[in-house]
Amino acid sequence: MRVKKYFLQTKKETPSDASLISHKLMIRSCMIKQTSSGIYAWLPLGLKVLKKIENIIREAQNSYGCQEILMPTIQQSEIWKKSGRYNDYGPEMLKFLDRNKKELLYGPTNEELITNIFKDYINSYKDLPKNLYQIQWKFRDEIRPRFGVMRCREFLMKDNYSFDLTIKEAKRSYDNMFKCYLNTFQNMGLRAIPVKAESGAIGGDMSHEFHIVNKSGDTEIIYDKKIDSLKNLTSDNSYQILRNIYAVTREKYNEAECIVNKNDIVVTKGIEVGHIFFFGTKYSSALNAYVLNNQGKRINVQMGSYGIGISRLVAAIIESSHDKNGIIWPKEVAPFDIGLINLNSKDKMLSKISDDLYKLLKQNHKEVLYDDTLESPGAKFANMDLIGIPFQIIVGLKSIKNNELEIKNRKTNIITKVDLNNPSQILKQLN
Amino acid sequence: MRVKKYFLQTKKETPSDASLISHKLMIRSCMIKQTSSGIYAWLPLGLKVLKKIENIIREAQNSYGCQEILMPTIQQSEIWKKSGRYNDYGPEMLKFLDRNKKELLYGPTNEELITNIFKDYINSYKDLPKNLYQIQWKFRDEIRPRFGVMRCREFLMKDNYSFDLTIKEAKRSYDNMFKCYLNTFQNMGLRAIPVKAESGAIGGDMSHEFHIVNKSGDTEIIYDKKIDSLKNLTSDNSYQILRNIYAVTREKYNEAECIVNKNDIVVTKGIEVGHIFFFGTKYSSALNAYVLNNQGKRINVQMGSYGIGISRLVAAIIESSHDKNGIIWPKEVAPFDIGLINLNSKDKMLSKISDDLYKLLKQNHKEVLYDDTLESPGAKFANMDLIGIPFQIIVGLKSIKNNELEIKNRKTNIITKVDLNNPSQILKQLN
User: Fold this and answer.
1) Which residues contact residue B367 at a Cβ distance below 8 angstroms, ignoring those fewer than 6 apart?
2) Backbone φ, ψ for residue B10 (5° rounding)
3) What CA–CA distances, in Å, run from A346 to A286, A406, B294?
4) Partners of A416 in the beta sheet?
5) A52 has which bridge partners?
6) What is the number of other CB atoms lying within 10 angstroms of the CB of residue A263?
């Protein structure tokens, strides 16, 4: 993509209402624009990141046996009355009447709706287990939306729902998702720690939140410091440890019950990026979702639900990966692989070399943002640093004279010189 | 995907409230489920088709220079008051108050919102032209939702918006989208005819609808029969003809003005799948969106908007491609490439052969739905015909004894025998 054509009007000023660094950087880098209080439009650069995260989640869901569906954003109130949750979200649940005076609501979560769908199709234990997920916009009418997409009203979530015959099998589904989440977050370059949590309005008696440790987080988490020494959270060994180690939210913390020595405990802040629940028959009983078991007896299905905040993750990743100059995208979710900077777009030789490089990189399936504008070198550098693409290729007169290109690693700031006429050396530097 | 695990509970009965064949077949084949009046959930099979159509549209948009963004579903009423359209959609526009008593609405279309976004970023003629698109759910509170996803309340649309400095350039953008649409529909195996249309609530003085000729369509269209003799609507020649030939909706028809001989006219029904508009400065004037031209003068941008009904297209394709046994998917949008039928899943040899085939096909990047259930052969055949996958591979004892497989083309019903032990022959038959 050429910057000249791209809808990428970055800003130098920091918006006055933004306190979080991720909020500031997302506005400045033209990723999002607020269109109403707590409601955002995703501009081309922001949407690219959102879609990358979405796809990493989708692939993990598919590989763990979940099937994708898509429920509508708008639900009927009736099913919420049946489940007994009609008032549980209070004024955060956006309710309204349609033209026929029927009460509808913008779904804040979908346990009722999925249970209602499920029961229309699945009648036999032979068709279990099932695990259905969706990636869909939700709405929670926060009284004071703030922190950009970290706490907004219309937000994108992946939510999935497991259905099993027995508690034992349901807990296996829960464990399966626990593992899936460890992998999912790792696949986007993040380290997310599972901690025991309250179930809140979803209900049930087993629940974990997944947290990115970060000073801007709004949840206090308390855990055994052994977790910090685990290098790779997704190994079988780590999974066993994480499943049994002491790790809780502040709400869930009880000094008397805490089995870990005080000196061995970490108390810190986390950004919640995922939350999983096992709630047994809470919804299947209320909404009458059952299957026949092998003796022809009606059994309410055992259910769990599992959420990942996709739009919030974009901000969470920035909170944990930036410097004073801007965003530093993990390569897994970066909007582009490479930023190509022509330091003087009026110079014919530099333009020819840059154009050829652009072509070469695209042929090698790299996503490239090519700054071909007439801005000053300083402005181009600042812009690329702000946007945070993992690698920058700098095409300038000085190095070209030595038949060289400069490749800058955004994270380490290390600049490597490569032979301009050696494509394989160039490509090798970009991995 | 194995049928045994798949969420695919097809139904034999036709739902009583369904009159359109597409509605019946989508319910029976477990593609969609109504969750409220005119509001549907997309089940795994349906969502796969929806996503394929979405991606064909996305690729065409990208290749015609449009950039993807994503606007929220919820908008503020204010901008609709500014544009003067607040009452234009009447009770079809779903409006409601948030907890702070601010009036919001579920967007039925996005001209106001995109104009507001645009003007915050683009200030100079140098940054034009721009063309932004999104694929997002919309809501129109139809008084009598019916015909399944053909006329539902929550629906998926691709909408894009062009911004130009001059009328001449804006008309070029319009023509560019006209061509893009001809290609888009062809890329999904459809023949969509552009006809001059009224602009309705969008406004402006130039507009075309794109129609699939079909007896179940709810729009009468009238056009020069020469169109029916055009083989390929996307050739340069066809484009020139279509841009100038007589073709209108009934609303737009005026006998006195019709230049074509009565005998040379086709009067038929069409399903509207796309609609494009040029409306000049209607929104840019009202919402004060301007750029500075090369003399530093403020110029309101010239705009057009362009819509494709994605969820509706799923139904439209079925209306134009089915038989008495079920759906016949064009291969471009088929949920799977191949249906693999093991006629007797209890038979070890048949199961081994089927499993091996399943593996072979997946290795060759084919999407396969593998019926490994214990259903009867008749039920399996009926199911595959209903679902409408382009090819069926039938693994039965009789042909296996001759070292053969049967491959059935869903559209032609022709069955070809291929050598079981010749993978390349098998794969060749499936293109």
Assistant:
1) B1, B335, B336, B337, B338
2) -70, 160
3) 70, 19, 20
4) A407
5) none
6) 6
Strand blocks (E) in B281-336: 290-292, 298-300, 302-309, 322-323, 326-327
In chain B, the residue whose alpha carbon lies closest to the alpha carbon of A30 is B121
The rounded distance, in Å, linking the Cα atoms of B233 and B293 is 38
Contact A102/B33, CB-based, under 8 Å? no
Q: How confident is the model at residue B28 (pLDDT cuts 50, 70, 90)?
A: very high
From A113, which residue of chain B is nearest by alpha-carbon distance?
B35
Nearest to B99 among A9, A40, A91 (CB): A91
Query: Which of B39, B42, B92 is facing A74, going by the closest CB pair?
Result: B39
By the 10 Å C-beta count (0-12 exposed, 13-18 middle, 19+ buried), A359 is classed as: exposed
**Selection from A176, A175, A207 nearest residue A274 by Cα:** A207
Reply yes or no: is the peptide bond before residue A129 cis, omega within 30 of 0: yes
How far does A184 lie from chain B, in Å, by closest CA? Answer: 21
For residue B231, how many other CB atoms are within 10 A of its CB?
A: 7
Q: Is there a contact between B42 and A69 if contact means CB atoms under 8 Å apart? A: yes
Can you tell me the distance from the alpha carbon of A358 to that of A356, in angstroms, rounded to the nearest whole number? Answer: 5
Set of chain A residues whose Cβ sits within 8 Å of the Cβ of B137: 72-73, 137
Best A13, A29, A43 residue to mutate vs chain B (most B CBs within 10 Å): A43
In terms of phi and psi (left: phi > 0; alpha: psi -120 to 50; beta: otherwise), the region of B147 is left
Which residues in chain A touch residue B9, judged by CB atoms under 8 angstroms apart?
121-122, 127
Which residues in chain A show pLDDT less than 70? none
Angle at B167 between CA B165 and CA B168, to 5 degrees: 100
pTM score:
0.97
Q: B361: distance to nearest CA of chain A, Å? A: 18
Checking phi first, is residue B305 left (phi over 0); if not, alpha (psi -120 to 50) or beta? beta
Strand, coil or helix: A370: strand
Contacts of B206 by beta carbon, 8 Å cutoff, 6+ apart = B171, B174, B199, B277, B278
A123 forms beta bridges with none
Contacts of A110 (CB under 8 A, 6+ apart): A71, A75, A134, A136, A159, A161
Contact in structure between A293 and A299 (CB atoms under 8 Å): yes
Nearest to A36 among B94, B104, B117 (CB): B104
Measured between CB atoms, which of B40, B47, B104 is closest to A68? B47
A322: helix, strand or coil: strand
Q: Given this model, what pLDDT does residue B16 score?
A: 84
Amino acid at B18: A
On whether the CB atoms of residues A250 and A302 are closer than 8 A, the answer is no
Q: What is the pLDDT of residues A190-204, one digit of tens each?
A: 999 999 999 888 888
Helix (H, G, I), strand (E, B) or coil at B268: strand
Cα A123 to the center of its chain, rounded Å: 34
Q: What is the model's pLDDT at position B390?
A: 98
Using pLDDT thresholds of 50, 70 and 90, give the confidence band for residue B14: confident
pLDDT digits (tens, 9 = 90+) for B211-260: 999 999 999 999 999 999 999 999 999 999 999 999 999 999 998 889 89
Q: Number of helices and strands (H, E) in chain B?
A: 13, 23
Distance from CA of A117 to the nearest CA of B (A): 7
- Name, in order, each residue with C-beta under 8 angstroms of B348's C-beta and a sequence gap of 6 or more: none
